[in-house]
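Q&A log
Question type: sequence-to-structure
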Amino acid sequence: MNSTLFKILAVMFLIVGESLAIYSEMIIARNYNLSPNSLFQLFLKMFILITVAGGFLLLGYVTSYSAFKNIWIVSVASIMSILIVEPVLAWTMFKQIPTIGSIIGLALGIIGFIVAMIF
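Response status: OK
Response body:
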C-alpha cells in the first residue's frame, strides 16, 4: 500500500475512534439531563458504541505506529483529532459557542500538529 495512503488511513482510524468515543460521552451527558429515568438503557447503548470506538482507537494506534514509526506523532494525531472533533460535536449537540480561550487552544493545537508532522 502507498505509504502516504497508509498514513492517511491510519489517522482516519484514530479520528473515527475519537469521534465515536466523544459522541457517546456527549450523548449520555445530554440525554441524562433530559431523562434520568432511562439512564441504564442509554448507558448500555453508549457502552456498545464506546466499545466500537475503542476498537477503532486500537486499530488506529497500531496502524499509525506502523505507518509513522514514531509514537509521538501518533499521540499528536490522536490529540489533534480530539481538538477538532470535540468542539464541533459540542457546538452541534449543545449549541454553545466556544470561548476565546477555547479558540486559542484549538489554534495552538493545530499549529502543534502541523509542526509535529513536518519535523
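Response note: The chain has a mean pLDDT of 88.
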